[in-house]
Amino acid sequence: MLIGNLGKDPEMRYTPQGHPVTTFSLAVNRTIPGGEGERKEETEWFNIITWNKTAEICNQYLTKGKRVFVEGRLHIRTWEGQDGQKRTNVEVIANTVFFLDKASTVSLPEEAVPDDTSPENLPF
Question: Class of the 2-32+39-121 domain?
Answer without folding.
Answer: mainly beta
